[in-house]
């Protein structure tokens, strides 16, 4: 497994961006290089959470080992505030950076598949919100979307708009821009899901989601899953009765997500929790 740190200039963000890439190009089989294909690889673009960095995934999970076992490339950009949304009113194009520039750049640089079915967008917390938004905006590019403990903040934006607290409004304006324009826009996942109801010919990404019952965002995730299913999306969702909004949960469930994305024989995980057992904790109706 090759672990790369890349620093490149983004024309959309008008600054240099750091990213970490995991490429199974030198995968080992004992003491020898494994006789496996050398690309083009299935790829997961993996986003961190609020105030995180690209290396969070390397420092806090064993995603490298899991990606190697799955023969999957993982691209992890550093997103500062963790919310990649376009703000055209101030000429900031964080969403286009993810769905256009980052994908195009990494495909030119690395042996990645350009097929829609081989390209996934994933994230945790607020990064999961971002993955859902940008994945729905570019269903031609992303065939799979993975959301772990998604921070779906539509209701909080509505509360902030109606609030008399300037501090609360400024906090959400940092992420969304003008709050009065969010609902019904390309930053609103409800509006984006409705587009697919009105346009049945649009390609539909398949979804994988997980959120622990002890996470205070659990109900938000249930609501989004129901919206997606009602609109005809293929959704696999797990809600284990253990785990909160924390890295131990994401460490285990990124394994589950990659297993769903690229199923096949896999060596035992180094996670403290047996993730294969976690996926069977909920009854069959949660797998619909």
UniProtKB/TrEMBL annotation:
GO terms for molecular function: acyltransferase activity, transferring groups other than amino-acyl groups. Pfam families: Esterase. InterPro entries: AB_hydrolase_fold, Esterase-like, Mycobacterial_A85_antigen. SUPFAM superfamilies: alpha/beta-Hydrolases (SSF53474). This is Esterase.
């Amino acid at each position: 497994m090759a672990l790369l740190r890349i620093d490149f200039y983004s024309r959309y963000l008008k600054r240099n961006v750091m990213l970490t890439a995991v490429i199974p190009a030198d995968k080992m089989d004992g003491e020898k290089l494994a006789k496996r294909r050398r690309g083009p690889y299935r790829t997961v673009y993996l986003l961190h959470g609020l105030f995180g960095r690209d290396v969070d995934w390397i420092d806090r999970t064993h995603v490298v080992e899991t990606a190697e076992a799955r023969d999957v490339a993982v691209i992890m950009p550093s997103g500062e505030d963790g919310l990649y949304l376009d703000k055209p009113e101030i000429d900031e194009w964080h969403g286009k950076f993810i769905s256009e520039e980052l994908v195009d750049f990494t495909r030119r640089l690395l042996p990645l598949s350009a097929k829609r079915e081989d390209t996934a967008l994933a994230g945790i917390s607020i990064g999961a919100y971002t993955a859902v938004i940008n994945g729905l905006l570019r269903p031609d590019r992303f065939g799979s979307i993975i959301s772990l403990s998604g921070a779906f903040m539509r209701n909080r934006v509505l509360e902030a708009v109606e609030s008399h607290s300037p501090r609360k409004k400024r906090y959400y304006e940092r992420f969304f821009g003008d709050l009065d324009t969010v609902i019904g826009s390309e930053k609103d996942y409800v509006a984006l899901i409705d587009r697919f109801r009105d346009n049945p010919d649009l390609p539909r990404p398949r979804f994988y989601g997980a959120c622990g019952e002890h996470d205070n965002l659990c109900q938000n995730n249930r609501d989004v899953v129901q919206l997606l299913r009602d609109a005809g999306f293929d959704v696999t969702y797990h809600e284990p009765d253990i785990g909160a909004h924390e890295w131990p949960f994401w460490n285990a469930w990124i394994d589950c997500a990659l297993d769903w994305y690229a199923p096949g024989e896999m060596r035992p995980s180094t996670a403290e929790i047996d993730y294969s057992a976690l996926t069977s904790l909920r009854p069959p109706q949660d797998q619909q």
